[in-house]
Batch of 2 targets.
Target 1
Amino acid sequence: MSSIWRSRNLIAGAALSLAMLAVALLSLIWTPYPPTGMDFLHRLAPPSAVHPFGTDSFGRDVLSMIMTGAQSSLTVALIAVAVGAGIGVPLGALAASRGGLLDDVVMRGCDLAFAFPALLTAVMITALAGPGAVNAMLAIGIFNIPVFARVTRGAARGVLVREFVLAARTAGRSDTAIVLIHVLPNIAAVLMVQATIQFALAIVADAGLSYVGLGVQPPQPSWGRMLNEAQTFIWRAPLLAVFPGLAITLAVLGLNLLGDGMQDLLDPRLRRAR
Amino acid sequence: MSSFLLRRLLILLATLLAASLVVFAVLQILPGDPAAIMLGTGARADTLAALRHRLGLDAPLALRYLHWMVGMLTGDFGVSYTYSVPVRVLVAERVMVSLPLALLAIVLSTAIAIPVGVLAAARRGRAADAATMGIAQIGVAIPNFWLGLLLILLFAIRLPWLPASGFPGWGAGAWPALRALVLPALALALPQAAILARVTRAAVIETLGEDFVRTARAKGLTRNAALWRHAVPNALVPVVTLIGLQFSFLLAGTVIVENVFTLPGLGRLVFQAIAQRDLIVVQDLVVLLAGSVILVNFLVDLAAAWIDPRQRRSGA
């Protein structure tokens, strides 16, 4: 029962995530209407055969906007995770393989970073450095660095004491070579799981930043900003506040299921515990 | 125990000091001269210089940091550029919204999550477990500000039971104020409760497999007695640690959720201060919020050590 349930997680997660990616890619070449095309004769239209999700206060087609919104959401999250992993993984690997003072400094630095509520600080950075997609990516990415550094260090320390690493060291391989050839391939799966979780968190953070007007700037549609605009008309067109949030939730749910599924494949002990 | 406490206290102080240095440094690096923003683009160079002098912006960096830190420690948080009132007064006013909101959210989240998590663990693999964990999986994925909007739609518009936004203040009595905090607290609490329920379930399942639980059962304790008296107390360490970590999420969450419900709390104050480049307010608030996260984590470490004495020896 439990292993079927788990692999079902993996399949559902992969399907949802791929669907989201497909929508984002499709929106590059086709949407039912131009996402920025206004139609003042049909403002705040309820869902219908012509506009499946209705139209917003400018008469723009909500389905087309949500499809296009997937582009910026996925791009910002992807780059934020890449920034975090790109800096955090080498930092964590270095801390694990060198140890000593460097290890202490890196780990205390991570503790310090965790003291700052991430979203609050991201709001501060984007607001002061100027709103926009690039600053949003960086502001979210910064808080991924300590996460990846910690996970990498923890996993790498487990590998560094194994016999094949000792053998490689005896054979005269350098620290860098050992990390690149022996450690990283062995912790890649753990890092993939973490990247999936951080990807989901980054999507939420990006939506939060866009909701308060600090993410991707108009006219490029974004899910967070759509929710913000919908709130103004929540009495007249309540469904406007439903569809973009559903898109965020499905994207996050898909990634979380994918992460859970991969985690269980990695850790058979955990699979039995559930 | 005393050396454990001393080491923890030293780490606490060093972290607080480092956090204040980081906040100060970051705000120096980021663009935006408050004097120029206050006076607008047409300001003359000498007026600008005079204002910078009055605000103390022309002093050396180290001196400014020292002055700020000594002020923070003696309760003088400086004066807001835009509101022209002491930051201490602003914070004291807004904290009366954010603190009850965060506490209400923590209480709600814990009150929901622990029974649900324990129940799911006790009924592992059965329908109740699958149903609650399925709901939790979705709950984790819902962003709190969207949940806020949905709650407004349901309980303020469709069913006009609770206010959709705003805060009447505590002066009008506790009941109207609490009514205004219910929906935002739920928006913050439910996603956190989903995470906490999953962790509680996993922790209880882990301890249910331990020898001492089997011994308790062999001694003749009922399943329920073994669960509540032996498994649950021993599963509390990760749960308490997570509740502490969630405090940080809740604080950050208030920035956005207070915007959804237009609550005059610390989150909205941070936001307004950033928009108006009221840097002294931003600097004070961020360091106060980070400081409270550091302090809560310190207390959580102590609580974990109190619950489970083994933690005292497990090093830094």
Target 2
Amino acid sequence: ATYTVQTSFNAGDFSTQYLTEHWLPKIAEMTGGRVEIALTPNGSVVPAKETPHAVGLGVIDGDWTSVNYFSGLEPAFAILGDLISGYDTPQQMAGFCENGPGEAVWQKALDEVSDGEAHLVGCAPYSREALPARVPIRTFDDLKGKKIRAPEGLASAVFQAAGASPVSIPFSEVYGALEKGIVDAADASAYVNNASTGLNDVARYPLYPGIHSMPSMQLSFNREKWEDLSEADRKALRDWFYMAMADLTRVVAEQDAALAAKDAAAGKVEVIDWAQADRDRLRDVARIEWEKFAAKGPLAKEALDANLAYMKQIGLLK
Amino acid sequence: MRRFFACCAAAMDRVSVFTGQACASLLFACIALSALEVVMRYGFDHPTSWSIEVTMALCATAWVLSVGYVTERNRHISITMLEILVGPKLWRRFRLIQILVSIGAVTGLILAIWSPAMRVIARPEYSGTALNSIQPSYLKVVLLAGCVLYVAQLFANLIRWFQGTEKEDGGGH
Amino acid sequence: MGIEIITILIVLGLLALMAIGIPLGVTTLTVSLVTAVLYFGERAGFFIVSANVTEVLHKYELIAVPFFVFMANVLERSGIAHTLFESMAILGGRFRGSVAVQTTVVAVVLAAMSGIMGGEIVMLGLIALPQMLRLGYDRKMSIGIICAAGALATLIPPSVVLIVYGLAAQVSITKLFAASAVPGLLLASLFIAYVLVRVRLNPSLAPIYDIPETGLPFVQRLRFLNGAILPAVLIMAVLGVIYSGVATVTEAAAIGAVGSLVVAAVRGELSWTMARDAMRRTALTVGSIIWLVLGAVSLIGIYNRIGGGDFLRGMLTSLDIAPIWVIVVMMAIVMVLGTFLEWIAILFITVPIFAPVVQDLGYDPVWFGVLFAMNIQIYYLSPPFGPACFFLKSVAPKDVELQEIFAAVMPFIALQAIGLLLVLAFPDIALWLPSLVE
Ligand code: NA
Ligand code: NA
């Protein structure tokens, strides 16, 4: 059968095209044609933040969504969706879901926003966002006093705690604000995307690999439809999701790295890569903000505890 | 009985006009807030975190709650080409159908947004931004209020249709 | 039931409801509710409608619409158009057809301040039409030029049509505003050229109009430029702010709204009653627009979900013709819809389906947006549903019949079509300016 899955990637995005070309045929192959997925772009059926309910009601069969959209519905998703300055690599974060305690607590949060009608297939990030900056921010201490565009709640709190002053402006304003120095740095997107929107032309000191955001996505299925699948097909679907995300991560990272190296060599930008010590210091500051955020609800607390436990397990935290 | 209905319609008209004109003042406030934000951002280098969410909430309120006023003045955009073709008598029948279909559709919309609106009242939905306001919850509730106002005014128009006291078409183009 | 049949049923349902005069917002809402409930059942169907409808209120860019409408309402009540018209008369000098040319120039300046069409035609209809008729200008030419030039309000930025297009097609409104400026001026030039050629061929169409000041040398006439100073400042404030990227389109619209009040105050025309009435009229206008948008968005969401978007896209892309002809087909569809539908309805029916195809074919959706806005120019004039003609009728002398107006605009529709074809053939006319802004 064909399952309609709405993604939070936009119609023209590289990710949408890459998944459609390389990975949608594969799931049909893996399940002998029993599971075919039709990926519909962001907002095509319902707005991104409504997908859990839409999945629950069977309006769409599944969603492949950046769960940051749900953080207003359930604070746990702010922590699960983008634990600011938490993991250093997308692989670590994916491990939290695939091999760690991630899926269990994630499913609980998903139950909360879908009335228990949506089943989590898997969860993983696909890129570490770069941070375009118009002034050099080379170390943790350089953050002090910098004006950084960060509209999301947790990102804003972490930057504030690190001594910067977060500014909330709409994304459409980021270019102008960086150009005119209204902000020194701006929460935006992956390196390649920032380059194509011209942000790196006006903000010539991009922090890459980034220091804050790593948005995570979920693949969920309508519970009934999920339960109708055979055990083998369910396993295939989950494996497929993690393979697809790992592949997408790899491709995006390769593109980012190649372009960053090229830009740096051409003298267009100075790419700043923080030392591990600075990343660790930011993580320590961020951790206090995570804790405050987790106080917003029992599930948020559970989500954070699961993350902390896994980070200790892999040696990111002591 | 006839007088009672006439009074109901007149009262509803007054409510709608009053709300609509109050909405006009809200739009004033929106303009002032947006202009102020530009001054704060570029004049004082000090953008606010609340301006956009507040402006949107105010504007949505004005936008949705002016519906009674719009309905009372018959200013909804419609195609009235047939009016000349079919003549005034048949068009009067069409007017009745217009009102009844509108009542049906907006009632349908009320049914559709009812449970989402009740849900956010029971369990508020926040914007998830630094401000983390309840703007998303508010917008759902205000839309529900707008729909109720819309239906109420449609019933007032229905009374006027039966009593032959309909107002002139506002020519809503 | 196949998507083909459902599509036909939906179209028939829409047409039937519209024909009996049911408000367009209610029409689309009814059809979407019925489709949703039949297809998904009550719970899921209601959910999909409510989710999409609520989302409309989260569109920040849409807030620019009431601001621009208010700005136009204030300007309409000030004497700014009148002063502008007089200044242009003196600056322009004496030549055959001068008043028609001057009307077009004033229309362009007004268009750069106003984002909606109605007010501008009313202003021109009140100021320029009586003047031209009094001077013995050909009636048809006078009426036609006012409708056509007045319609430029939504092609020359700012433009509410382009704002809503930008939202529906998900493209930058700033770029759209940059791209539509030159095509707008192109149309204005076509109108002027047409008038000049016709009065040259047939001088009886336009007697030469003489006012004493036009006898002065040009340099001395320049001091009559002051009527254009305030409009210039206001245009700079709004378009300058947008093009430089200092503020969002919404904020620029707010600046424009405040600016229009300042202009009215400077001219001594600002009063509490005037501002209040302008705001009430704004509430009425935008209060009816929002239901149109709500209904249209709801219908599109449902239609996409049942595979309609894919179906129509598939049909367009499977056409066995060169890509540019696909665009031509789209333009023809918009033109046909434009004879009887409201522009927002046309936009929401066509753009969500066309825009992805345009991109797939390798064209720039900004360019397509300009083509769309130019097509909307034709929609304003084309009978039987020609809003510009209705607006002019409402202020024209009693003896001007709607039929006469429709006949008068025909040559101008042809000019609009020529302009559209030029931009279609030479996309750089539109895309040149945005490439500079980049
Ligand atoms: Na304009
Ligand atoms: Na038309």
